[in-house]
From TrEMBL:
Family matches, as Gene3D superfamilies: CoaB-like
Protein name: DNA/pantothenate metabolism flavoprotein C-terminal domain-containing protein
Phylogenetic classification of the source organism: Eukaryota, Fungi, Dikarya, Basidiomycota, Agaricomycotina
Residue ranges occupied by any DNA/pantothenate metabolism flavoprotein C-terminal domain in the UniProt entry: 174-270
Family from the record: Belongs to the PPC synthetase family.
Organism: Sphaerobolus stellatus (strain SS14)
Length: 324
């Protein structure tokens, strides 16, 4: 199995055709918020796919509904951040997630007003008293955010689109310096098939079993931290299904990439508890862990995660400003 460096990856895999246009939108968004003195967070959300054919019929997917990213984006907006929300196409999005087709289908809010002739008549919106308060809150936040231009949304599907977008956005966001925060919650493929090795057409079943050797996706956090956006506050997520691995894997990531924080979560407990792993201030070379758990009366753990993160970003900004 080959392992690509970030450099060899971008030298051999073609960029998505609409990349430049997407980056223009990000540039305009970043510059406006820098001018207005706002902090900017990049939230990545949802899973990346790995196509197996050039004319893609089959692909490998990464698990993620996009709940973590979409929910966190709302809390960042509530804390005054401008949000670049880079998500898997059709995964959950801030605000609309409350009324997604599976959790709260829009059609359930419509009713027929009976016509005079006894026919079905015209559909009317019917929101019950118990639903009104919540709907009004969501709608108000949504309208405010859009009127003020605080949310910029971009989509990816494949790992290739994700990697190119992340690189391009980070180069733009670099201008926000330490006011930029990265919240890398997307579930990213570890393996991929380079286009040079892909079959052009649909893989045929006539040969019996299918053996595919994939290459390793480059570890993108290293150039992100060292080259593309060296001044920002960078938070990555670590997903494991074996709870015992969470903390050692988080240590390994911090040692390798030298970023600020890893948020560890175990697949089945991710909605109830996560662990913040970061370099220890008191003991250089060591790490510290802080568990964040869903509190009584809270419905979403992201409230606690984002609150804690904003505190850390603020403290770090103050400490690094004083050190200058
Ligand atoms: C996460 O760990 C996210 O918290 C989840 C959120 C994907 C579990 P949902 O969207 O789930 O709310 O359903 N994201 C990061 C996963 C990841 O790919 N991390 C890489 C790794 O673990 C490192 S960047 O190796």
């Amino acid at each position: 199995m080959a392992s690509f460096s970030a450099e060899s990856y971008f030298a051999t895999q073609a960029p998505p055709p609409d990349l430049e246009q997407l980056v223009d939108g990000v540039r305009e968004f970043v510059d406006r918020h820098i001018q207005e003195g706002r902090r900017i967070v990049l939230v990545t959300s949802g899973g990346t796919t790995v196509p197996l054919e050039l004319n893609v019929v089959r692909f490998l997917d990464n698990f993620s509904a996009g709940t973590r990213g979409a929910t966190s984006a709302e809390y960042f907006l509530a804390q005054g951040y401008a949000v670049i929300f880079m998500h898997r196409q059709f995964s959950l999005q801030p605000f609309s997630r409350h009324y997604s087709h599976s959790t709260n289908p829009f059609l359930d809010f419509l009713e027929f007003e009976e016509g005079r002739d006894g026919s079905n008549g015209t559909p009317k919106i019917n929101v019950s008293a118990s639903q009104t308060t919540h709907l009004a809150q969501v709608l108000k936040a949504y309208k405010d955010v859009h009127t003020k231009g605080l949310l910029h949304t971009l989509t990816f599907v494949t790992i290739n689109e994700y990697l190119y977008l992340l690189r391009s956005i980070s180069k733009e966001l670099n201008r926000a310096k330490r006011h930029a925060l990265y919240y890398l919650a997307a579930a990213v493929s570890d393996f991929f098939l380079p286009t040079q090795k892909m079959s052009e057409h649909k893989i045929q079943s006539t040969k019996g079993s299918l053996i595919i050797e994939m290459d390793q996706v480059p570890k993108i956090l290293r150039p992100l931290v060292d080259e593309w956006t060296p001044e920002a506050y960078i938070v990555s997520f670590k997903l494991e299904t074996d709870q015992q691995l969470l903390i050692p894997k988080a240590h390994q990531a911090l040692q390798r990439y030298g970023h600020h924080l890893v948020i560890g979560n175990e697949l089945h407990r991710r909605k109830f508890e996560v662990v913040f792993v970061s370099p220890s201030k008191a003991k250089p070379g060591k790490f510290e862990e802080n568990w964040i758990r869903l509190q009584d009366g809270q419905t979403e753990i992201e409230a606690g995660i984002v609150q804690q993160l904003v505190l850390r970003h603020t403290e770090w900004l103050e400490a690094t400003t004083n050190a200058l």
